[in-house]
Design goal:
577 residues; mainly alpha; two-stranded antiparallel sheet; 19 helices; globular
């Protein structure tokens, strides 16, 4: 019989819904928090893969227009968590932010569902129908409002869910606190991965087989369960109050350095000239980005400081710690920017769905993979590689070399960028073959006709894309956490999301530019709605070229950054008090 671990024993001892008035937080609240985000992920991720088909076939949009809409929706969904984290930390608190996000997401999904059932919102035709009535202003407003509400809601939930769950276990007097937190983080990421798998398989399959009304209705129902799950345990949550945000501190450093721009920096500066937070071990600011040092110079102690040593005006005088934290963030930005292009490639999810829909997707005579479900192969390759890397590749390499072997964060980021180039190149080759075959079979004017080519040829692209994300995204996260102090962990956790948001905007710009340039003179656009006349293979080769240039840019940034600090002496870990 298996003996439960200490953490499991704590979970067993703790009743799910304790009636003790003082009992707050603990493991009993975690199933509700995890279920809240898991249901939201299944609902929102399940809507994305087939949305390009809904917009083009039901709303009659051109592929370029529909893809732009989805790029902007993705950008908003990735940016809103940053805004949500700022508001939660500074003003409203995490509990209110998650609750707000749950309700708003539910409203957005209900609006999207209404576009399939109400007479005023439903489009009574498809693009392939010659008598199609294209959407009215009201119908488009309803659609775009649903996207906007879902993006805002995702920002509310995803910005605070992980940190709010950690708050429930953050018991300083408990010796098992660290083990409990690690257990929660593991289950949290397991739930996120499982949600993505369910979304791109089950939800997409339901949309394909039962139609849009049921396919959009189920995500709305799941979002209702998400909100219900969160509020059920409301009386038992630890609800921390909002505090000041790091973003506010960064803004104060920039403003203070500008206000003090006329101060001359002395080469003979002493620690007494600078403002220090209580308990800070950092006495002097570094010489890098020296103009920011003006933000922490004390001009007149009697006018600038309170009797207990705090700044009277934090927008005119900051601590040395705050200045150095901003410098550290600025230093990683060049390497962060190299991750934008790989996110541009990973965001190209709409076009492969259209390609898969035109190919033979049968794996048995009786079972056909939905076009929107092919993304599951990318997720599977990501999960398999992460497991192999930790459990087989590293131990085997260490055994062969006779010493511990591990790829550095920057090495993994670079390998991920290389796999991203290979992913786009593989996609370009497959699309070139598919297009030629469609023309040979006489389908030049039939963009939805099935080509005699297996959709399994898309798997190399998907596997390379999964490996690219496994190396680069995980490497990026570890790089930020290792190079930034613990006091900036909230910033480190959002940098990848910010990059994805910027990448969606960049992807929209690239695709719009390609569309506008290539259709001049009456020529067929590379990203035309007729994929058999378009040249998506050229579009993918363009992305391959840009990715190759980005790889060179990464190597330059990596060299300029210098060696990573394996063991950072975290002089900034001491708070300002």
């Amino acid at each position: 019989m298996e003996i439960p671990s200490d953490v499991d024993k704590d979970m067993i001892k703790e009743p799910l819904l304790s009636t003790t008035p003082k009992a707050k937080g603990g493991f009993r609240t975690l199933p509700f928090i995890i279920a809240n985000e898991a249901f939201e992920r299944v609902a929102s991720i399940g809507l994305m893969p087939n949305m390009i088909l809904y917009l083009t076939r039901v709303y009659g949009m051109q592929i370029a227009t529909a893809a732009n809409v989805l790029f902007l929706w993705s950008a908003a969904s990735n940016f809103m968590p940053i805004l949500g984290a700022f508001l939660a930390d500074s003003y409203v608190g995490r509990y209110r932010m998650i609750g707000f996000g749950s309700i708003v997401s539910l409203l957005g999904m209900v609006l999207l569902w209404l576009t399939t059932i109400t007479s005023d919102a439903k489009i009574p035709c498809s693009q392939s129908n010659s008598s199609c009535n294209f959407p009215t202003t009201f119908q488009l407003l309803l659609l775009y409002s649903s996207f906007g509400l879902m993006a805002i809601g995702a920002g509310g939930i995803r910005s605070s869910s992980l940190a709010f769950g950690a708050n429930q276990l953050d018991k300083r007097g408990n010796m098992r606190n660290k083990a409990m937190l690690e257990s929660f983080f593991s289950w949290y990421y397991v739930s996120v991965s499982a949600s993505a798998l369910i979304a791109v398989t089950l939800i997409v399959y339901i949309q394909d087989k039962l139609g849009w009304t049921v396919g959009f209705g189920i995500p709305a129902l799941l979002m209702f369960l998400s909100a219900l799950s969160f509020y059920l345990a409301s009386p038992f949550y630890v609800k921390s109050k909002a505090n000041s945000s790091l973003l506010t501190g960064f803004s104060q450093v920039v403003v203070a350095s500008y206000k003090n721009r006329h101060i001359q920096l002395s080469s003979q500066a002493t620690p007494e000239m600078f403002h220090h937070g209580k308990g800070s071990m950092l006495l002097m600011p570094s010489e890098k980005l020296r103009f920011l040092n003006k933000a922490c110079i004390i001009k007149n102690p009697l006018q600038d400081l309170t009797p207990d040593g705090r700044a009277l005006d934090p927008w005119s005088l900051c601590t040395v710690n705050e200045v150095e934290e901003l410098k550290l963030l600025i230093r990683v930005i060049p390497l962060w920017s190299t991750g934008i292009m790989i996110s541009v490639n990973l965001s190209q999810t709409s076009f492969p769905v259209l390609q898969a829909a035109s190919m033979d997707r049968h794996i048995t005579p009786y079972f056909e993979i939905p076009a929107g479900s092919f993304g599951v192969f990318m997720i599977i390759s990501l999960i398999i590689w992460i497991a192999l890397y930790d459990r087989i590749v590293l131990p085997l390499a260490s055994k062969i070399s006779g010493k511990p072997c591990r790829l550095s964060e920057k090495q993994r980021m670079g390998i991920g960028l290389l796999f991203s180039c290979l992913s786009m190149a593989a996609m370009a080759v497959v699309e070139s073959v598919r297009r030629e075959l469609a023309i040979e079979e006489g389908f030049s004017d039939e963009s939805q006709a099935l080509v005699n080519m297996s959709a399994m040829w898309l798997l190399p692209h998907l596997f390379f894309a999964g490996l690219a994300e496994a190396f680069n995204a995980v490497g990026q996260n570890e790089f930020y956490y290792s190079q930034l102090p613990k006091s900036m962990s909230s910033i480190a956790s959002t940098l990848v999301g910010v990059g994805m948001s910027v990448a969606s905007l960049v992807a929209s710009f690239i695709m719009s530019t390609v569309d506008n340039v290539t259709k001049k003179g009456g020529e067929e656009s590379w990203v035309s709605s007729n994929i058999n006349k378009a040249h998506y293979d050229y579009y993918y080769w363009l992305l391959t070229g840009l990715s190759s240039v980005n790889l060179m840019y990464f190597l330059a940034c990596s060299k300029a950054y210098g060696p990573c600090e394996g063991e950072r002496s975290r002089v900034l870990d001491e708070g300002d008090g």
